User: What shape does this take?
Amino acid sequence: MSSTSSPALSRAAFATLLLIAFMMGANHVAARMAFDNGVDVATAVVFRSGVTALVVAFLLRWFRVPVRLGPRHRKALPVIGLLVGVQSLCLYSSVARLPVALALLAFNTYPLWTALWARVVYGHRPEARMVRAMPVMLLGLALALDVSGAASGLGASGHWAQIGVGVAFALTAAATFGLALVLTQHETADLDGRLRTASTMGIVAVLALAGVATQGGFHFPVAVAGWWGLLGLTVLYGTAFTIMFTVLPRLGVVGNSAIMNIEPIFALMLAWAILGQSIAPVQVAGGLLVVATVVWLGTRKN
Assistant: This one.
């Protein structure tokens, strides 16, 4: 294998990527614990994004990262923040309604949306590899979601009456995240990642605060498990993002972030162990197909 196209991961880098994927999956399981015990989506997003923004802002000052924004950045960053805000609210809304693993698998279709938005906004033709992956990923998603309702025994109409809203939220999250990625790549790629993250998380927190205000205030947990969930989703998300933008660059990880797309698998195991959630074997097989396809896309040669 050529060493010039895709450098081998060190053990430390590989372990760090797995840790981030684990914490991201655990973050969503913690979120479901919070939602099942009185916390609403807007409250969860305020805590998660607000704390992350503060931590990354501290890192900016600690490392003396220069804050220089050009006109293009000033236009793009608020749009990206708005998109990620919608994505955050929609994904947590999906997690509140679906088994955690299924919500994340539906969201994991975002590479397809990224290719679509790159074509629509910038006229980029999708790579042949992406075109080949699309039907495989959609087949895996169809199996994971049990579109026919066979695994659930409810039939298609009964099954979709249960999962339809949650799936719609997850796909909306995937679509908005895909557009945010495209805009980030083309409009803000020259900015320090920590600066982008602090800006984005700050905007997301403000949007979530507006949501909290419209619903009459924060909805805090009504049981101890809910407080653990709220604390868990805040700490896990903030820690994962901090590691992502401080440790990974030092480890020289380039183009290997696709490994983190095993997040739904970690979420599936944790949701089974902690929440008692389980899905049918055919849905697990579909989920593995989706994850494998996303990883295959992410490890393509540049």
Notes: The longest helix spans residues 155-187. Confidence is low (pLDDT under 50) at residues 1-6.
